[in-house]
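Hi there. Long-time user, first ticket. I'm pasting a complex I've been working with (about 517 residues overall). I'd like to know whether the download I got is complete or cut off, because the file seemed smaller than I expected. Thanks.
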Amino acid sequence: MTFTIPIDNGDALKNAETDSQRTLYPYVTGTSIVAIKYKDGVLMASDMGGSYGSTLRYKNIERVKAIGKHSLLGASGEISDFQEILRYLDELVLNDNMWDDGNSLGPKEVHNYLTRVMYNRRNKFNPLWNTLVLGGVKNGQSYLGMVSMIGVSFEDNHVATGFGNHLARPILRDEWHADLSFEDGVKLLEKCMRVLLYRDRSAINKLQIAKITEEGVTVSQPYSLKTFWEFQAFHNPTAGAQGSW
Amino acid sequence: MFRNQYDTDVTTWSPTGRLFQVEYAMEAVKQGSAAIGLRSRSHVVLASVNKAQSELSSHQRKIFKVDDHIGVAIAGLTADGRVLSRYMRSESINHSFTYESPLPVGRLVVRLADKAQVCTQRSWKRPYGVGLLVGGLDESGAHLYYNCPSGNYFEYQAFAIGSRSQAAKTYLERRFKSFNESSREDLIKDAILAIRETLQGETLKSSLCTVSVLGVDEPFHFLDQESIQKVIDTFEKVPEEEEDGGEAEAEAAAAPAEQGGAGDQDVAPMEM
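Hi, the file is complete. Here it is re-exported in full:
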């Protein structure tokens, strides 16, 4: 996809320079993030893959990171833009800590800050090519929200990005309820991630589930899901094939 | 304080380590009419004396809403106070826009203090001639701060600034230990009583004072005259006859710093 703004200052050379400064297409991308609120806070799941177009080039990318004391940020889309966002947030959290007073940035504040950043970049036709999921707990209140690369922002009890919106959210709409236990929450997320693994070609079977509660953040070690490939239709896949097609 | 050879410039130190211009700026605060602030665990009350220049004019506003959760009362050069209130409102609303969350009072106060400090270290500027009582509510509770023209700020349980504020401070010193647990109504009553102390014998009427409240679940707002009068009626048993009009309070105003020392009896036009 190309974003080109027609600049007619009669200087084609200068136009070329400024064009190369803006994000035109993503290169290394992460696929879906799925997140839900549960009894003690928020659970967020993602796989560890970084695709380079149709090639699954990187298999150890952490796409969920802790932000400050109270928040968790997950990102799909361009990985380098995610790293840029992490740098912005690092500075934000640093300045917040330097005040050294009784106040700290909660998930709501971080979410709104990110919304402003994403929307402003979109207005300049130079987007950060990510869909971000922001979850956290502060003073007993759980928070879960999302921001897209064009600055669309909202909160909900469960969110997903990319393919997750089409494959995971219907499952969540049916099976999510308030006050899920940790075990039930993980089971629900694994159910969603398994469907994504079967059906999303950019997904890999190496995932992390991160949890955030009032006590803090824990990101699990990477692990894989059990999959089942012994369906009848997969035996002798060419059985019904007659002729060249 | 007398004129001396080190007081012309704000950027000139005296041999005893004082910046006289800054101290003269603090004198300007003492010339304004009184402003009082008190806080409990959950509420902050700001009150001020309504002083009009003459019978023909209305009184100057000394209390400003900065945001739903922050208010400020000023004493000294009202024009400086107005400009600083605008700055505070701007900072507060910018924070709200970016973070959808109220600006913590402590952080606003530090920014205000840093702004005041700049004026004490530039030869082409002068210090702000206004003291600000900033009251607000944030995550860590209710707070009351006093911002000085020197760029210092302090946190208080209760404080009074402006002319005859010592009388109010004496009253508050007797009672401040109970303020943390005070109810909203008691806090308002104490504020009005402290205002009464600064009037030195003049009858307290609701038209003479402005009172504002903010608290948990209560955004900053002014109390209307009726409510104030009701509180006054609970302790002013017999309304006495006034000896002179409310305007007859003689305020010793400091002439501009070049003329040094207090001595003139007329109110400087820019101060209230």
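A couple of notes from our side: The two ends of chain A are 33 Å apart (CA to CA). Chain A has a mean pLDDT of 91.
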